[in-house]
C-alpha cells in the first residue's frame, strides 16, 4: 500500500479484553469463567506464588467470603475474644435494614459455636427466627404466652439443688444470688405494671416477704413458691414484714403502707394486663446442658407491656441458670460451659418499658465476667436513639460503642452521621453500606423483583481497623432453617376453595 509523503501509516488495532475486534477476527462475546479449585499450600505448593496471606482472620466460625479477596472470613465474638485476642469484649452488635440477613448472620454464628461446644441461648425470640435452628441441633424450645406456657418468676430453678452440692461461701453465694435475682425480677414486673418503679419502702417489704416465704414454704411438698404465695405472706402480715413496713404496731398503718403493693401483686397473679404467665408453676424448666430458645412469638406486638415483662423474666431465668452453672464449675462438680446469648430485635425490647435499658446495660457490662458471649441485633442507630429520655439514649448508644465488633448490613445515608459517631467509618465504607440498602431491580422477564443487591453482604468493623466486607452464602440445610417467610409460601384462598368439613382425605388431596 502506497502512502503519501509525510503521511503516517494507519494504526493497527490492538486486541481488546475479548480478543481482536471486527468481523472474522476472533472476538468473543462471552468469556467463560475459569474453574476455581481450593487447596492447602502443602497440596498446591508449586501453584502458590503468594508469600503473604490476605490478612483475613481464620479463627472462629466460617462466616463467608471476603468480597475483595475471595478469602474465607472466620468470625464470631467468642473465638475472636478467647482464642484470637482480636477484641477485648466477647460481644457483637448487628445493624441493617430488614430483609438483608441480620438474623441469618447471628444464626450462622450460633450454629458454628454450637459445634465448638458453646451453648446458644436465645432469651426471647419475638418472631420467631431461631426455633427451627435450636430444634435442629437438639436444643430446648420453651414456649411462653397466654395459654401456651408459664414462667414462675419465684422459682429458684436449679439454685437450691446446686446449693445442696456446695459448701461454705459457695453455697451461700448461690442462695444469695437466687434471692437477689427473684427480688429484682419482681421489682421489674412491678415497674412494668405501674410504669414507675416501686418505692424504697416497698422494695424493703418485698425483700423481707421473700425471705419469710423461703423460710416457711414447704417446697418439697408444694413445689416452688409462686406470686400467689408471696401475696398470701403480704396479707398475713408476719412480724418481720410489719417491721420492714414501719407500721409502729398498727395494723391499719401496715395495710395503708402495703395497699399499692398488694394491688400490683393482684394484677400480676391474674387480675391485670399481664395475665397469669408469671404466677403459675413453670411449664418447662430450663436446662443448662443444651441450647435453649424462649419462643415468645405468640405475644402480639401491640402488647408492649407483656413483651417487656416476658423478656425481663426470660433474661432473669437465663442468666440465673448461667450463674448456677459457673458456680458448680468453679467447685469442680461440672464441666465449664460458655454461652452465646442472642438478643434479637433489641429495639423492641428497649421500647417496651422503663427499666429495659438499664437491664440490657448491666448485661453488656458484665458479659465478660460471666463467661458469656453476646449478639445484639437491631435495625438502625435511630432505633436506639429514639428512646424518650436522654439518659436512656446515651446508654443505648453505649451498647454499640462497647461491642467487641460491629457488623453492618445495608443502611440508609441518613444513618451515617449517627453510626460514625459510635463506629469510625471511612467514606468508602459508608458508600458501601448505602449501596447495599438499595431496593432490588425489577425483572420484566418474570414479572418479579430480583434479590436485593445487599442481601447477605456485611461489613465487619473492629475499632478503628479497616472493615472487612463479606458475603454470607447459605447452604441448602441453612436455607430451610432460615426461612422466615413460611406464611407467604402458600397463596391466599377464599372460603369457596377450601374443602368441606365432610370431604374425604382423597378429595382433599385431589
From TrEMBL:
InterPro entries listed in its UniProt record: P-loop_NTPase, T4SS_component
Region of interest (Disordered), ranges: 1-30
Gene3D superfamilies: P-loop containing nucleotide triphosphate hydrolases (3.40.50.300)
Origin superkingdom: Bacteria
Name by which UniProt lists this protein: AAA-like domain-containing protein
Organism annotation: Geodermatophilus ruber
